[in-house]
Amino acid sequence: MTLSRGIYIINNAGVPLSMDIDCGSSADGTKILGWHDDNFNWNHLWLVEPVDGKTDTFTVRSLIAGTYMTLAGGSQADETPITGRRRSSGLHALHQEWIIKRSMDKDKESYKMKNYASGTFADLYHGGSSNGTPIYGCKGPGFKTHDKDSWHQYWTFKRRSLSSAEIKKIIMGNKFHLSLSKLTVNKSYKSFQVDGEYLILPQSLWEEIWLNSTDLSGKKRRREIFDYDDFALTMKAAVAQWGAKTCDHADGFSIFCGLMLGRSLKSPREGRAYNFTISDDHSGVVFFDPQDNKFIMEPDKIDCDASHFYV
Predict the structure, then answer these.
(1) Are the CB atoms for 60 and 95 separated by under 8 Å?
(2) Burial class (CB in 10 A: 0-12, 13-18, 19+), 108
(3) Class for the domain spanning 161-310
(4) Which of 101, 254, 260, 270 stands the most exposed, by the fewest C-beta atoms within 10 Å?
(5) Which segments constitute the Agglutinin C-terminal domain (predicted)?
(6) Residue 177 pLDDT > 50, yes or no?
(7) H helix or E strand, kind and range, residue 277
(8) pLDDT tens track for 186-216
């Protein structure tokens, strides 16, 4: 299966270490190391984008640092460091291009990463399991060869983003875990990005952003002056501002925070508004009440006819 454009956590298939850009540094030459995966660490997030005109060939860019995964000097020598560097041009750009294809290790659904310039593979040094284990470029068997001795060159890609088209499909085809059939989306859906890539944040980060990046705690609704929609718009803006501050070196992606507007089911003359995100398994929509910093799990708590959805 060909890898698609997206934001990924790249884990070694043999030990629980992820590719980590050291300390999140944006300095050229920053080492890329193995580090224990804690499910969502900015140093572990990579934007994988296809290279035009080349099959199964990608650049791999750190979200936190904005630099590209680079094989030092494009060298064919074993144990050549893999580092983060700003985007290069000419022949040096090939040092930052990676052929990523499925390995023959079918049990893990893993991939191998072959540097376009050198023909060597991204390798977790000796398969070490300690934080800080180096990741080098090393020789290895090809994609179609299953070699038990080179398992430390096998990597799994855990996607943490969705495309505009994928999000639209989820929203348009999902009843949002609600028992009321009238809440299926068949009225209005708008996406600012036509062909964008959206990072899906863990729910715990939403709660943290609400607490630390908005002034909504303790704020009371004032009909028309500061109404339901104002709470939801404030939260959406806070997520965007938090993302711009956190990832001030990289671009080419958005951070997902949806906005739902509609009419109250209990009082149809009144408007209602909620935020929403996509579930961790990317199967459905999860609503968020920006008045009290809570995700809504019970269907009967959604007092809205779901007329308009904006991303």
Answers:
(1) no
(2) middle
(3) alpha beta
(4) 270
(5) 198-295
(6) no
(7) strand 271-278
(8) 456 777 877 889 999 999 999 999 999 999 9
